Automatic annotation (TrEMBL):
It comes from Gossypium tomentosum. It comes from the Eukaryota. The keyword Glycoprotein applies. One of its GO terms (biological process) is recognition of pollen. This is Bulb-type lectin domain-containing protein. Keywords: Disulfide bond, Glycoprotein, Signal. SMART domains: B_lectin (SM00108). PROSITE patterns: BULB_LECTIN (PS50927). Pfam families: B_lectin, S_locus_glycop. InterPro entries: Bulb-type_lectin_dom (IPR001480), Bulb-type_lectin_dom_sf (IPR036426), G-type_lectin_kinases/EP1-like (IPR051343), S_locus_glycoprot_dom (IPR000858). Residues 1-19 form the signal peptide. Transmembrane segments: none annotated. Residues 26-147, 150-277 form the Bulb-type lectin domain.
Length: 339
């Protein structure tokens, strides 16, 4: 019994030390590093901002910290190479948030440098909303991650006119992927393959609110309601039409996933639970145009989208079938001789 009490006491001390070693704010002169003091926690501990392991190094981002699945919701410079372990993240006296390597050039994360002192960041903080902010000397927000989303929006965050979310390459690769969702200036929220926004017929899902006018934004509230507001603050469309303010969940996020489908997820207060899909833009996972690349097509097998090649074509890469197919001229020649 005494041994058990000792273990519980040691665990309490360890957790207390760990909590003390994780800051809640960055000021000029303080820093984060991948190895020591690697992230900031929000006040409740729900969100973290800082370095996370990525590929063969580290990236800077925001994630859900107090659940088993440390879900990434924002990444700075998402298409850049991972950082090595000897870098530091610092807020300079000039109001810039940078990653500083031991050798080479600084990498900019956020910039508030200005001749106007009221616009100059003097501290940075991770809020319980999941919004990482830079603050001036009066505590006013002068920069926020909510203005620069990657593939996800959180409750209280909005996707304004011309704003977009871009899918990740893969679950383990947070670089820009193949699909996006765009808040168009005509009021229509539309999903496209990346690079095909201007192509006629390229959209594969939309809210059909193209007559709503300029100023429409996509919003998610704390009860899991996904909706469009016009510039007067009027709700013009509930996107998850079966929304019921009774799911009993405590966390929500809306993400355009790697497969090109926009989904609303919820999570209970039990940290060991999984994310639950409340709504999705399509229930047919072959809908996203461009899911399978050149000379290939999508079919559903056992509930999963699978890319296939037509006759006389082979996969460019058998391990990455989404890259598409190319013609196998030896098969074509063989069929010609046999014909």
């Amino acid at each position: 019994m005494a041994f058990l009490v000792l273990l519980l006491l040691l665990n309490f001390v360890f957790n207390a030390i760990n909590a003390q070693s994780t800051s809640t704010i960055i000021k000029p002169g303080s820093f984060l590093s991948p190895i020591n003091n690697s992230y900031l926690l929000s006040h409740s501990g729900q969100f973290a901002f800082g370095f996370y392991r990525y590929k063969n190094g580290y990236s800077v981002g925001i994630w859900f910290e107090n659940i088993r699945q440390k879900t990434i919701v924002w990444t700075a410079n998402r298409d850049a190479s991972p950082f090595p372990s000897d870098v530091t993240l610092v807020l300079t006296t000039e109001g810039t948030l940078i990653v500083r390597p031991k050798q080479g050039q600084d990498v900019l994360i956020a910039d508030t440098s200005s001749d106007n002192v009221s616009r100059l960041a003097t501290s940075a903080s991770m809020l319980d909303s999941g919004n990482f902010v830079l603050l001036n000397s009066s505590g006013g927000i002068v920069w926020k991650s909510f203005d620069f989303p990657t593939d996800t929006i959180l409750p209280g965050q909005r996707l304004a006119v011309t704003g977009k979310l871009v899918s990740s390459v893969a679950e383990s690769d947070h670089g820009s992927g193949k699909f996006l969702i765009l808040m168009r200036s005509d009021g229509n929220l539309v999903q496209y393959p990346v690079g095909a926004v201007l192509e006629r017929g390229a959209a594969y899902w939309a809210t059909n609110t193209f007559n709503a006018g300029y100023g429409v934004s996509l919003n998610l509230d704390g009860n899991g309601h996904l909706y469009l507001l016009n510039d007067t603050g009027f709700n013009i469309k509930s996107i998850n039409t079966n929304y019921v303010n009774a799911s009993g969940k405590s966390m929500y996020r809306a993400t355009i996933d790697t497969d090109g489908i926009f989904r609303l997820y919820s999570h209970s207060s039990n940290r060991f639970d999984d994310w639950y899909t409340e709504w999705s833009s399509s229930n047919y996972r072959c809908d996203p145009l461009g899911l399978c690349s050149e000379n290939s097509y999508c079919v559903m097998m056992d509930g999963e989208p699978v890319c296939q090649c037509p006759p006389h074509f082979d996969f460019i890469n058998e391990k990455r079938k989404e890259l598409g197919c190319r013609k196998n001229y030896s098969l074509v020649a063989c069929d010609t001789r046999n014909g």
